[in-house]
Records
---
Amino acid sequence: MKTWFLDFWREREEVLKRTNQLRLRPPQLKRLLGDSSLRTELKNGRLASLLPPVGTEVFRSFTPASLQDITGRHEAKETERQERTNKDVRNVEKELQTQATHLEAGKPLPYILGDPPPELLNCPLEELDPFYQSEKTFIVLSEGNVLHRFNAESSCFLLSPFSGLRTFAIRILVHSWFRLFIMVTILTNCGVMMMSDLPTLSRTAEFVFSAVYMFEVIIKILSRGLCVGRLTFLRDLWNWLDLVVVITAFLPEFLDLGKFSVLRTIPRALKIIAVYPGVKSSAGALVQSVKRLAGVIIMTVLVISVLAVIGQQLFFGALRHKCVLMLLHSNWTYNDLSSYHDNGTVSSDFDFHKFINSHENQFHVSGQLDPPQCGNGSGSGVCPHGYVCLRTDTNPNHGRTNFDSFGSSLLSVFRLMTHDTWDHLLEQMMRSAGPFSLIFLLFVFFVGFFVLVLVLAGVAMALVEQEKAGVTEAKRTEEEFLHILDVMKKKEEEEEEPQDHQRLSPPCCVSVWTWNCCGCWRWIKLRINSFVMNPFFDLVIVTFLILNCVLMAMKHYPMTMEFEGWFAVTSLVFTGIFTVEMLLRLVAVDPYGYFRVGWNVFDSLIVVLSLVELGLADHEGVTGAGSDLMRVLRLARWWSTFHLLMKIIWTSVWALRNLTLILLTMVFIFTIVGVQLFQEDYSDHVCRIAVDCLLPRWHMNNLFQAFVLIFRILCGEWIESMFDCMEVSSPSVCSIFFIMVLVIGHLLVLNLFLVLLLSLVGEDLVTPKEKIKNNPMIAVDQIKTGVSWTRNWILEHIWTLVGKKNPIIPHHKVVNRKEDNKKDNLGLTSVTSVTSDQPLSESRALGSNHGLGFPVADTELELHMPEKEEEEQNDEDNETPRNNTPEACCCDSCYRFCPFLDIDTSQGSGRVWSNFRRVCFSIAQHKYFDAFIIFIILLSSAALVLEDVHLQQRQLVQMLLNRADQVFTFIFLLEMLLKWIALGCRKYFTSVWCWLDFLILAVSLMSLTLGMLGYSELGAGLSLRTLRALRPLRALSRFQGLRLVLNTLGATCPSMWDAMLVCLLVWHIFSVLGVNLFAGKFYFCFNESGGQFLPEEVNNKSDCLLLIHENFSDVRWKNTKLHFDNMAAGYWSLLQVATFNGWLEVIYSAVDARQIESQPVYESNVYKYIYFISFIIIGCFFTSNLFITLFIKSLDQLRHKFGGKHLFMTDEQQNFSISVKKLFSTKRQSVPRPLNQCQARLFDLVTQLSFEVVMVLVICLNMVTLMVETDEQSEGKEKVLFYIHFVFIIIFLTEFLLKIIALRQHYYCDCLNVLDFVVIFTSIVGLFIPDIMESHFIHTKILPVLRLARITRIIHLVPYTRGIRRMFLAFVMSLPALFNICLLLFLLMFTFSVFGMLSFAHVKRTAMVNDMFNFETFLNSMICMFTVTAMAGWDRVLSPILNTPRDCDPDRGDCVHPTVGLVFFTSYITLSLLLVVLLYTTVVMETLNMYDTETPSDKDLQMFYKTWRRFDPDTSQIIPYSQLSDFCDALQDPLRIPKPNRIQLVHMDLPLLPGDEIHCVDVLTALTARISGEGGQTDTLTARMEERFTINNVSKMSYEPISSTLKRKQEEVAATVIQKAYRKHLLKDGGADEITAEPAGGAAAV
């Protein structure tokens, strides 16, 4: 699995970092400007060509003489250009492409030009770019050497470049203070726009702002001109924004804009982007990335539209069915009720239509606004007794959620794809249409997954395309800089340039901050310095910091007085410790040295803050938590991963400030626009969405609430707020606004996330070259060394006292013989596995059986099997070794302590035992035995599925399951005993998979034992029966794909665990802060029968207890299930906020909270939203970025470690992936033109592109006719649509007949034609015999869906879809990896579903646990776990599990221990989230790699040939193998392999010719296979290369290879191994003298 994408970004970071450091010293720059011979040699360089002639000043003032010279050159150039136009147009085109990129406007000057004199800043200067020296332009350099270019023509035909007024305007325009003034004005204007309650001030300020913007436009026009000529005001699109601002400023004086006043707001806020060039360029890059996403956008819109039509056809009117109170009137029957909607009339005066649509007559569930749906089909929702399911006129969510029209269906599908409360919609669909709606949902999710991958890959590739030009330019700049330095060195000829070696003298005030007053003080300072610099000092400080974190975690509510006193004293102790630490460090290195270290400054600030908090401890509101939380951040000083997280935050704030500022600007614009559009509507029509006519929590009636709502939309929740907006305001305006916020906001967030992710790929902390140990790590190593030495010393004296020989050799390295043999065998098999026909396992067996020990050679490190691959191979050998020699049963220590176990296997009973073990061994390793065990595992897993809540009523099934459980356990016991005998206990228990089988079997045996003893219904018995749900995990070791995924996840565990600890530490900070803010404040007085009391009724806990004391039994003083009373509860609440499930309840409780033990008040403090917004940004966005960064880094390291091998595919799956690529890349054979003249003409017709375009247009029109269908359409409309569909059938039938006549049997060679035939056949049959089709074959609703499949023909016509087809190919190629990951995810879901069914089947039906979502059956349990996997609604599934006995009845068994539920959901969410991230990462990386898998073009072959000629001047087609490394490094991308490349060249396995030479075609074929996969078209490339040599009059050379690069390397390794083994053998025999006298070439002799 190649990751060129990460390699490119890593290279980008390194190149840009080096380029930014390129500088010429003043003497070098002086010599470059004055040495004519040096300039002559550098005349072809791009940068050197920008210098003026020798003896000429670089920076020259722009004078009238300069303008005359420019005019002359301009006229001469125009004359020459006119003459060339008639001769050669290409020369003119090439001439237009010679503009210097280093001297573009807005960029700083290149280093080669040096710094201009200060007096020339902000003054007109002559052009530096040779391209513009014949154009009428001049430049101005502002502060920072930023270049500005102006038109030399007269501004507005009045002001010449030398006019004082224009010069003054230019000075103002380029000055940094002018830009700062404009920025301050814009920010002030934005602030005034937020003060809508001060209309007088706003109107006065509006005139001031308008005047400033007008002044800015006038300055720009005076300095640049209006529109005539290049570089004028209107030639810059950003200046049009200024013009719009000025125009809209005066529109309100003449027109009443009303809500259209937002047209004034948007341009002014966008000026924030236009003020600074960096932000402006970032915005331009974003616009360009959107252009590059045109194909993805078209594909997304098309896919959503098709899915909307499918949903429209499948669920017409489905959500209108509700449970209506059954009539008791005798004149009405059920048939009358169900058919009333069709005939519409009855003979009674009773208004049945009004009755069924009355809100009071419909069944409602408490706590829900809309009545639940129902259905009359199998598996749909069932009405309670006394109600009947009827179709009404209303849909859920104010009638907005439905599939009755294309617009509503489109909105619902878009809601499903964005995963916004999709669990509610799924429940509604399942209740009304049955479980098959889940299939539609899965299809939407699958398509949504593919679309999201397309968007991610598209955005990432757009970023790469934007950066490629910059990286290429940086590389060229660096190469030219090195070339300049090289030429200078040659010219100097050992002459040293004068350099300024003067040391910077410290400031005069340094002596005040360096305390060296006397010798005694210096002695004390030296001793303190030694103490502070000791590694153990830092280790002690880290220990205290960790203890401080533990102390903060102990705070809870309620706390006793004694605990509060102990807590306060301990906090004082920690404050004193860290204060003493600061003083010691201050004394040790002096204040001057102390405050030069950033971490010391941070530490001192924390200490000062702690002391200030101590001084203000008596004041109300000062808790001291601020300094305690800041102390946690100190751990980043010694914890590299935590430091990386802080670096990520800093990078997003500073390094990516432009992109961050754009995102904040867009959030501000949406906030202001939302307030201006909907503020009055929410105030005037709030009664439409609230019964009490109070504003809901999410509205846009004021600025802060609008900002919070925009943030919620960016978090992915938008549909509910949009429904409310559509009720109070215009539905079209609301839908456009919300969808724009969703799309634009997520696109900006995605860009920021990816840029932040990729910008850290090349950093040292992400890919460290060498892990440097810090002081705490050094101290820990010293402690380990001391403990090890002490242990050895104690053991040595113990053995001495006992009188036995010490088995530990002192002062020598303890050698693990097992590991040594392991390495020896590995070194041998690395050679023999390829050079011989003997299997790898046999080679290892021989090595172990015969005791051959060969040490690993140093040169072998390049070829040895990676560690994880070695472990995997060892596991496979442990399970199914291919030799027939079982290993020893027990370990060596067992034989040493129990000698009777070591029997002679060559005779007697020992021989019988050995033969018996061989037989067992043969059985255990047989493939049929493995297949049988897999079959039993599947049967046992299927048996667990049947143990649902209905098992007690099916006694026969229960009896069969009990017997089957005993049989399965017995079979698994026999399997374990068989493997014990065959493999031996030592080898069995060294395998992780065998341990897993052993533990699962142990659980089953204990469960059966307790059942036989009659304790199965007790707590322990029930727990063990529940743990039988782990039995499906035995399948993990039986499938190689699952093992690959698990091994990869296991290899990434160290870095993931480190990232997880950092995330937990960040959450620890927010949890502590939450405890300090909200502990004890979420309690409320609740009436079981009437709901929550108002604050006017019950103000605090005392009032509530008073009611309870007055015998109000239904009154309770209760806490919310999500709170911050302690650290554990805080973590759980933050998890709900992080997953956006149940987070609103937490936020509502926090916003309503007042004081401890006070009754909550509705939105008492809305600014507490800031706490949760900060957590989502820091605790979710940045930590997830850290997690994914380290995850990708781990995968990338594994990829390099495995030599580029795919981490999630087996060899067979990789072959399948390559075959798929060949299939897609192979062009279809052209259909032969028929000989019959009539058929030939038809053939020409149907094969024309215009014919295909016409048919695609017809298909699109057919799709449009499906879109216009609605639920309740008139009969006339139905007839018109019927005839239209009939016309389409005739058209498609005609197309089929034309193609079948013209193409003959070749018609069925195209899958699209086969699809057309199926659609036509089913449409015609359904047209004439619809009843038979619907009852026996296919439902009539499916036919339109089949017709929509024809829309795929548009992919071949749209030019934007080439990239999409490539992405689709990558998606298909990654399907094996997806299968492995999804199979593991399914196995995880299956296991947890069974566990949930066995544990939570009797949970009380509340919240989301109802008749559709529950754990009573396996299917329902799987649906629940599916919703949890998609991070939707799991909080409402968990809520009933957390019920306490007051809310549930233990006697009925519907109470579950909350800890079980918390552990269950936390573990599943963590594991499933990891697999989902792995799923997305794999597909996205595979998609990105497809952009680097192209066959070399003719240009690449030309480059290869030219480079080959440099190494092969005689055109012999061969070069020495020693030059291959230099040759591959000299190539250009995509064929280039930069140095160091020795290992990669060896793994390419190139054939070696006599004399250690290689052939050009072999090299080209290997390089092509490297970039395009093993399925490259080698024959075509060989023919093209041979053609290239033939063109150059070179005959083809034919050689027979005698070896290969890989084989040669293995021979060298083998020789080294044999040589070392021979030396080791001589050392054992005392032949050291012979070794000394042995020549260096002895290995070859051996």
---
Amino acid sequence: MWLVTFLLLLDSLHKARFEDVGTSLYFVNDSLQQVTFSSSVGVVVPCPAAGSPSAALRWYLATGDDIYDVPHIRHVHANGTLQLYPFSPSAFNSFIHDNDYFCTAENAAGKIRSPNIRIKAVFREPYTVRVEDQRSMRGNVAVFKCLIPSSVQEYVSVVSWEKDTVSITPENRFFITSHGGLYISDVQKEDALSTYRCITKHKYSGETRQSNGARLSVTVPPLIQPFEFPPASIGQLLYIPCVVSSGDMPIRITWRKDGQVIISGSGVTIESKEFMSSLQISSVSLKHNGNYTCIASNAAATVSRERQLIVRVPPRFVVQPNNQDGIYGKAGVLNCSVDGYPPPKVMWKHAKGSGNPQQYHPVPLTGRIQILPNSSLLIRHVLEEDIGYYLCQASNGVGTDISKAMFLTVKIPAMITSHPNTTIAIKGHAKELNCTARGERPIIIRWEKGDTVIDPDRVMRYAIATKDNGDEVVSTLKLKPADRGDSVFFSCHAINSYGEDRGLIQLTVQEPPDPPELEIREVKARSMNLRWTQRFDGNSIITGFDIEYKNKSDSWDFKQSTRNISPTINQANIVDLHPASVYSIRMYSFNKIGRSEPSKELTISTEEAAPDGPPMDVTLQPVTSQSIQVTWKAPKKELQNGVIRGYQIGYRENSPGSNGQYSIVEMKATGDSEVYTLDNLKKFAQYGVVVQAFNRAGTGPSSSEINATTLEDVPSQPPENVRALSITSDVAVISWSEPPRSTLNGVLKGYRVIFWSLYVDGEWGEMQNITTTRERVELRGMEKFTNYSVQVLAYTQAGDGVRSSVLYIQTKEDVPGPPAGIKAVPSSASSVVVSWLPPTKPNGVIRKYTIFCSSPGSGQPHGFASAPQAPSEYETSPEQLFYRIAHLNRGQQYLLWVAAVTSAGRGNSSEKVTIEPAGKAPAKIISFGGTVTTPWMKDVRLPCNSVGDPAPTVKWTKDSEDSPIPVSLDGHRLIHTNGTLLLRAVKAEDSGYYTCTATNTGGFDTIIVNLLVQVPPDQPRLTVSKTSASSITLTWIPGDNGGSSIRGFVLQYSVDNSEEWKDVFISSSERSFKLDSLKCGTWYKVKLAAKNSVGSGRISEIIEAKTHGREPSFSKDQHLFTHINSTHARLNLQGWNNGGCPITAIVLEYRPKGTWAWQGVRANSSTEVFLTELREATWYELRMRACNSAGCGNETAQFATLDYDGSTIPPIKSAQGEGDDVKKLFTIGCPVILATLGVALLFIVRKKRKEKRLKRLRDAKSLAEMLISKNNRSFDTPVKGPPQGPRLHIDIPRVQLLIEDKEGIKQLGDDKATIPVTDAEFSQAVNPQSFCTGVSLHHPALIQSTGPLIDMSDIRPGTNPVSRKNVKSAHSTRNRYSSQWTLTKCQASTPARTLTSDWRTVGSQHGVTVTESDSYSASLSQDTDKGRNSMVSTESASSTYEELARAYEHAKLEEQLQHAKFEITECFISDSSSDQMTTGTNENADSMTSRSTPSEPGICRFTASPPKPQDADRGKNVAVPIPHRANKSDYCNLPLYTKSEAFFRKADGREPCPVVPPREASMRSLTRAYHTQARHLTLDPASKPLGLPHPGAPAATATATLPQRTLAMPAPPAGAAPPAPGPTTTEPPAAPSTAPPAPSTEPPWAGGPHTKMGGSRDSLLEMSTSGVGRSQKQGAGAYSKSYTLV
């Protein structure tokens, strides 16, 4: 099998090769998708892909895995054929034998991949094939099925059938189906004598199977011989046999009659034998008629044969005819009924006359005479001619016919033979009505009027007379005279014994018509529409109408008439009326009898008419470039036609290309003279203006169009096609084309070219401009090889227009300028090193530097001149700025100079320096100092290359307030081996003076580098200067530029309730901007940010502004309804005032009062609205809603339609009496009760809130005081005594609350404290170094000081609001930021230490920890209570208290927290007038500090830590930052006011830091005084501490910033002097610690309470290495939480 498959595929391969010889890669059989094989045979699959030349064929699984050979299982041949070997079922592996494969062909032409091929193995399974025995009747079809097990059904098929071991050939009666079934048609008895088997074959293994033998059972059904029933008569004997001629025995035979089984009896006998049954009827009767069926059945089938038996009966009478009477005109039936079989045929015959019948004639059967189904004769209308004899005759062909005769007599009922159907009478005249009758006598005649019998004795106007006239009777009714009520039907009734008859007479009494009913359909100013209804026409056709009308004050003699109106018309228009007049109207109708009376007189008033004259004296005056003032006077009085309500001003642009459509605005009338200003017009465009007056009726004619032109404005588009071309190194040509004429907005005066240089460091040069009238300008004197930004604008008389997009151009290269500096130093006895600075103006790309060396004396004796020698030249690359010149003579002087070279040539030489090689070279620095400017977050390298013999050592320091501090080396700072200082990701605080010193035994050299770090600009102060209906004008004051010129501003704005902001970029020179095309009457949010070379600065505060306009309102002076009739109402919508914003839509809804469904109509304010299809005499409710961009206004009204006669209807009154009163009372009472309950509930809620608020305020006051006092006095020390000086209070203008868990806060021991700040410490003369870590100062007098400052008005995004330093630079006075602390240098030999922003510590020893945290802002108040009151009196401070109180409530998570210690760890706060703060991007800071940019002005955090049971060992449980451990001597670097005297004094009385400057000694005395007088020591503002000059600056106006980097230090020892009582405060004293102190085995300074300077929220803290502290680490922070006020 697999061999056949292989050969077929190989043949296909050869064919494909011959067909596609020209291709290099192809598919042989890409349709091959599945290969199934038997496990006992195996398979060989050629690769469907091939190539020419021969390709490398490889097989893969569909997953992309390579095919590997499995011995005796799978193998890939060298020709690319895949072979799977036969295998046993136990060796089946689905990964190999049932998986998807593909083949690839690859040669130099490329690589192709075949489709996936499913290769599936089929197991050899034992199975059997079965055939079941079948049954069939002779002549039918027999079917044998070969039953194959389902497990192999897919692979096994039937190949043949055998009959008695002989293969069956499909022919004649035998047929094998496609599914393997055997069909035998027309089965015969001999087919049951054979045995049948099927032969199957396996599709893949070729194995065959033979089924078992099956037999066919053939059965023979019965066959009944035909039989018939002979004709039978009543009484005959009948015998019928039913014989079965063939069929399998036994056979059962039965009889049925009409479907029912026949049982022997009642004269019927059935006799049955083996194959025969007979039916015998001894005496045939009529009941034996029917269908008889003989049924024969056996095991094979049931058959039947049916025949009919008919029994014949002669006719006989069932009902015989008898003589009858018939009534004339009525229906009559002549009875006659017969039966027999077959049914007899009946015939009727008639003989006229009353004598003996002479001859009968068949009765003609017409619609009047019919024979009924029972053989009776029906005469529908008996006539006199129907009198005579009638014969009923019946026959059916059996026996003799039968017949019977009868006589019909006809009687005549009373009948009206003559009367008039209709007749006419004239009202007031006599009239006679006649009626004639005939019939069997006697006859009575009766008269009726309508349904009432006329009695002449009772109604004297009527008389009746009757007389005989042969066979007829005549009756006469007389009317004396006729009246309108006689216009009815009269009837005469004739009555006798056989019936009655009636004659109807319609009498019409004619008269003149009634007057028409007149109604007013519509009344206008000069016409009215009438409609009338003719109720009664006098029973005569209306021939015409007359209408008469007059002024109400005139008599009808002065009437005006409209005659002979067509009777087909029911309405008319009366025209040529006078507006606002009162008229009386009446009407007549006519018929041929005469004229009616006049109709009811109606009174109407005509409406006002639109003005007939235009406004007068219209003038136009341009006001601005987009507005024109229109003035006019009212129309003439006689042409106003009413009260002028307002005016419509139409205006259109008359410039070419305009659509010519008028835009309409409306205004209310204010008097005889009017003024209106048209806004939002096009600039410098001509407008035509017309004015129309309108009153309640409409709008009058417009005035003549007057033209005016708006004033000039600046061009709104820049010049087009701006191009720039660099001509030389200092000349460029700028060209452009004129802006589109439509955007000039005036007369073009000229052009202005603005250009400025862009330097390599990102800074911009001075902005210059040139004015010209041409479209080309030549820029001269430009800097060489410099990038320039160029913009062009057009200007008109109104000013400069829009600038073009910035175009960049670079001037061409030129020879460079001289190097900016040059140094030459000896490096050895025979060599020198020369260094230089790049040229200030390189004028191109420096290609190289040329160094010149010349010896002036060339070694000749002094006084002897020598011939000049050419200098030696040396070249270096442009990156190298120094060069070592060797092989020089010792003791000889040399001249050195340098020149730079560009592609344009060699530039000017530098200054010449003289140098002499020296044997012992002192240390010299060949790098240069100066100013280095860089954007923040960049790496900066400060070079300090030095030479000397011996090699010098390099040291970098940074200037501080008093003495330089060595630059510490960490991840942020790095000094290379060549002396270069690398500062990574510089920040603002890295700005300053850096000093590099190179030293060797021969001397030293120093350079100073001034580093200026540029930061993004500060936020601008944004304000709104002007608003209009469609614009908002903004102005701003830029903030600090961050050291880099501002490039521009980004203005963002959005609708107030939307967050979809739109951006507008504004030039850096602009200080105002107008937002145009805004929605009218809409609130907008606006914010602004500046942008410099570093990036975008902080966004300004979001301000809100609203454009002019409000929602529409309806004027009460305007009449809403101009006309109402019975089915229509006309509304005047001109009463809607648009509020300054165009109305976009008006929706009206109305409904009849008392109904629910509203009907809606949409309209606009300039049209009238008709409400149609209203109900007559109905009250309606109307509600209107008008909308514009500012909002929607609502108006409601009620109106009533008129009655059909034009009359008004009364207001709706309730018909329910007392129940309606109760309903009204309920309707009124419910809202009152609900309102009362609501007010009471609101009062209770507000009272509760007020009580809670007051409680929170009281708690908040205590908390706020505690937040200060707990940091200014010992926890266990009560505060007593009056206040002695100013104190600090926190002032947070606006805060929101954020609560978050503090993880990892460790217990820091007893309550810590900070130093109180007194007014004396705010003196300008105070050295800020003394406060560099304890208190940072912010005071106007300190701006130029040298200490670190906090400038809360100039905080940069991405920097912490921390200490700032003024840059010591002669050319720059900008303030800088610094997050590092410069610490006191205790002695000259001790290097200064710096606390950096990576949370390092300056020292940790003996359980003392120095940690860092951010600062908070505080203000100094002379009177704490006064300051506190001022806070409470403001809304912002009140919310501050409330938020603090809420935080305090959250802090009391456990009962112990009521006695917790609170610690401010971080605050960024500004006063209400300062800018918002933005936290820094310090990576090591916490998440809020590093990633948050709060929109509110303040952020403050504090932690709450309850007292712990281990308070006795607080000195041992001190948290220590992980990164650093310092020895005790490091504490000499701490500021003096944080050095506890007990800590710095050893037991032997010696100080660990012997060198104390006098200034610091004075501060130490201040610190001692503080510890002696407890935390609230304050100094008299007038006093001066030792060594602290007091300038007299008022402390009450100063502002202090508490520590940016605070330190946790030990407090005085237990053995020290007890603190003196502090000043009494208004807040309650803090609860003392509940844990008593335990005896301490530590040194005296290590125990006792600690002063607390703060703690970092995210510092990495760990316990002290002391044994006790380490053992208690786990429970140290169990209760610590951190709360953040944002």
